[in-house]
From TrEMBL:
InterPro entries in the cross-refs: PML_C, Ribonucl_H, RNaseH-like_sf, RNaseH_sf
Signal peptide: none
Originating gene: LOC111127496
CDD domains: DEDDh (cd06127)
Domain Exonuclease: 42-216
Name the record gives this protein: Uncharacterized protein LOC111127496
Assigned keywords, A-Z: Exonuclease, Hydrolase, Nuclease
Gene Ontology molecular function: 3'-5' exonuclease activity; nucleic acid binding
Species of the source: Crassostrea virginica (Eastern oyster)
Taxonomic superkingdom: Eukaryota
KW Nuclease (keyword) present: yes
Gene3D superfamilies, per the entry: Ribonuclease H-like superfamily/Ribonuclease H
Lineage: Eukaryota, Metazoa, Spiralia, Lophotrochozoa, Mollusca
Amino acid sequence: MREGLSYETAVDVAGYSAESTEEIPSPMQPLVQRALPQQLYTRVYFDLETTGFGLADITQIAAVHDTEEFSIHVEPKAPINVSATKVTGITYDGTTMFKNGKPVSCYPLEHALSQFQIFLHKFNNPILFAHNCEKFDSVILCRAMQSVPNLKLEESFCGFCDTLHLLKTIVPHQQSYSQEALVDKILNEKYAAHDALEDSRYLQKLVNSLENDVDPHYLSCTFNVQYVFHVLGQKTQSQENLMSLQPLVRGKCISENMAKKIANSGLCLHHLRLAFDRGGHDGIKNLFSEKSNGKARVTNRSKIISSVSQYIEGYHRIPSS
């Protein structure tokens, strides 16, 4: 049910609409993280503080390499989440930024990224090392980079290394893999965590203390900027899909979790309508149960398939104004 009519003559003669020929996208596939090639790199340890969790705005960028250090606070466009303030101590009233109640200078994002770029230009083939950066720091930084494309910051470094994956490999069986816990366990030190500069300093210190084990393994935990841009593209598409499915959630046709599952498979409400137009209940069933990596694209559960089919059928019965 994914393909509509595709032969041009039939379309021309019968006068089918564009929807008749539109192809429903195939299942969204997990992206493959590919390691950077073997060559001589410079390790730059970095960290971000943000307005919250998820796709948040940056409030601080910091980085270190050996004794070279960089730190800058950034004016966020979004308000800072109360939970984030409890962790970082950063607040912003729209004109002044405070760190633990003391005012600090802050700058527009474009200026902050350009200064970061100048810092990175000091080094040959820099890789940005950060803890849990595949899921967080790399995504936040690349999203910020997309908002100032003329800067071309992605040309100033080779990629990222996620030290969370790295340290799970070389120091297995730890109770916690938070950076703070690892510094305490391995270095027997405590520090002011959740300040980007201090986090960067101690990440460098932590990795350097394990140097003999790091060298053979770190490249396997690297990935390039284009991988992150693709991740962001999928996140954006999934969010747009999810927004379109909210009427089904509000109508108690499906749960929010099921809506996310549908959205993450690459489907929006429009695609469900196309499938129903072409095959009714069976169209939805075939679409949801289509195999993807050995599993149903969405679900095989007849109750959910029937519920969605009934919703789409009812949608078609609503008279146009």
